[in-house]
């Protein structure tokens, strides 16, 4: 197991992502390649979970697109992430807020953390 960790640390890429957790509203600036063109698309939503450590760290962001909930899993060490912007800090009691999937309307709102 130590050999695996040594290999992971050797190939680790430093990610300059800000600290965020479940309940925070963030905007992920993601690079998309279409043929020979490259553009940056913004994905703004609530962080449902942050999972893993080091190279395997991922975070799931959920947004409402019209009446449909859209979730996307981003690897934290992905070279396609151009940047992450924190819009709101959310006050939640759990690390994984999957209960948000079943809520609609005003019940799906998350209280903002007072700083």
Task: Give the secondary structure arrangement, pairings included.
Elements: H1 2-10, E1 25-34, E2 37-51, E3 58-65, E4 68-75, E5 81-88
Antiparallel strand pairs: 1-2, 1-5, 2-3, 3-4
GO molecular function: structural constituent of ribosome
Function: This protein is located at the 30S-50S ribosomal subunit interface and may play a role in the structure and function of the aminoacyl-tRNA binding site.
Keywords: Ribonucleoprotein, Ribosomal protein
Key structural traits:
115 residues; mainly beta; five-stranded antiparallel β-sheet; 1 helix; globular; structural constituent of ribosome; Ribosomal_bL19_sf; Large ribosomal subunit protein bL19; ribosomal protein; Ribosomal_bL19_CS
Short description:
This protein is 8% helix and 43% strand. The protein has 115 residues and is mainly beta. Strand 2 and strand 3 form a beta hairpin.
Spatially, the strands of the biggest sheet line up as: 4-3-2-1-5
Distance between the termini: 41 Å
Question: What is the number of beta strands?
Answer: 5
Please state roughly what percent of the residues sit in beta strands, choosing from under 5%, 5-15%, 15-25%, 25-35%, 35-45% or over 45%: 35-45%
Helix content: under 10%
Low-confidence regions: none
Q: Assign an overall shape.
A: globular
Assembly status: single chain
What is the N-to-C succession of helices and strands? HEEEEE
GO molecular function, one term: structural constituent of ribosome
Organism: Gaoshiqia sediminis
Keywords: Ribonucleoprotein, Ribosomal protein
Family: Belongs to the bacterial ribosomal protein bL19 family.
